[in-house]
Amino acid sequence: MTKTWFVTGSSRGLGREFVEAALSRGDQVAATARNTSSLDDLVAAYGDAVLPIGLDVTHKAAVFASVQQAREHFGRLDVVVNNAGYAQIGAIEELTEAQLRDQLETNLFGAVWVVQAVLPHLREQGGGHIIQMSSAAGLIAMPLGGAYHLSKWALEALNDSLAQEVAGFGIKVTLVEPGGFATRSGKNPDPLANGHLAETNPAYDGLRKYLGGLAGKQPAGDPAAAAQALLKVVDSDNPPLRVLFGQGFYPMIQQVYADRLKTWADWQDLSVEAHGQL
Q: Is residue 257 annotated as a catalytic residue, yes or no?
């Protein structure tokens, strides 16, 4: 059956691929972007099946208005993709308060506003599927990515709680956790070069050089393939709460979680001691 999508951050990257994949199979999409001119070619190709909406997800009232516009235009919303976001790069010591707040305003609060805006409609329909674009960075942490990790780890917890809260309404939630994906130029993006960069402190230059040497070593995923994979997720009768997109980070994530369990086990005697006597 034809599905109606609401997708944030539709102008480029994975968001753009998701919109194109949905439209190409006959679905309808409300595609939001800060600058809707980037969607003109989709309007020319797919006509009324795509509704471009100018949106900055950090503006709560605008988010609610955009969701209402999409619902009134198409009559329902089946798949909501929280995709808008960016990566703030910098050592914790280098980050300004404004950079931290801006990172959370877009990646975390923007996603919250979308969820709050769509839930009344999905409850009224008796179902729907919220897709939250997280990241492998929402499962593990690396140096110089503290702000980005903060936003993605928060989204992991938020959507885990959300899934439990809305299951009784027939609403599904899936956290999609991509690794590195190639841009349209075929390159695996280097976050140290392409992210939002904090003013550098020379004390971390050695670390930056080391990480720069590792950048791009993970196999880059194909965004078009990721879009086809997302179609399978939204068409599933029993979609996962979490799913990794790409294979590069899987061994690393396995090791991180194994190390975490081992550390808790190694220190279990102290954990019991800390509990004290009732």
A: no
